[in-house]
Amino acid sequence: MFDFMKKEKINEKDVGLIEDMTQFLMHLCCLEFHSKMSFHKTQNKKFLELHDLARDIRQKWLPIILKENPEAEEWCIIKHFLTCIPAGEECANRLFSDEKKDLGEQMEKDVGILIGAMYTISEK
Fold first, then answer.
1. Could you read off the pLDDT of 62-109 as tens digits, one per residue?
2. What is the spatial distance between Cα 61 and Cα 6, in angstroms, rounded to a whole number?
3. Strands (DSSP E) along the chain, which ranges?
């Protein structure tokens, strides 16, 4: 259990929403990154529009997992957590596929540590 869950009485329904919202936000961050890279590759402005759309939606929903009135540094660092966690998961998957089980397990452990750290920073 993450430290942030121990400090307050959070019912399972709230924890589920936080987990689902976190996944949603992670995928939006990935979409932002991928659409920006697609723009650089193709110069097609539709990818910039997609980037801006994903960013606007992320900014709208990020407060669900952030404490009230987060400082700018907290807001920004949460975005970085949201982008590196799925990348770490993908790396772990690739390591497992390459039969590098020990490294994959180590990566999964590090991703779990990052998730806990992210929720600690974003405590409400």
1. 887 776 666 778 888 888 898 899 999 999 999 999 999 999 999 999
2. 24
3. none
Rounded distance, CA 27 to CA 64, Å? Answer: 15
How far is it, in rounded angstroms, from Cα 32 to Cα 59?
Answer: 12
What pTM was estimated for this model as a whole? 0.71
Q: Is the pLDDT of residue 1 over 70?
A: no
What is the DSSP secondary structure assignment for residue 51, as one 8-state letter?
A: H
- d(Cα 41, Cα 34) in Å, to the nearest integer? 10
> CA 32 to CA 48: how far, in whole Å?
9
Residue 122 pLDDT greater than 80, yes or no: no
Domain edges within the chain: 11-121
* Token pair listed for 5: 């869950």
Measure the CA–CA gap between 9 and 11, rounded to whole angstroms.
6
Cβ atoms 54, 76 nearer than 8 A = no
The one-letter amino acid code at 67 reads K
Backbone angles phi, psi at 106, to 5 degrees: -65, -40
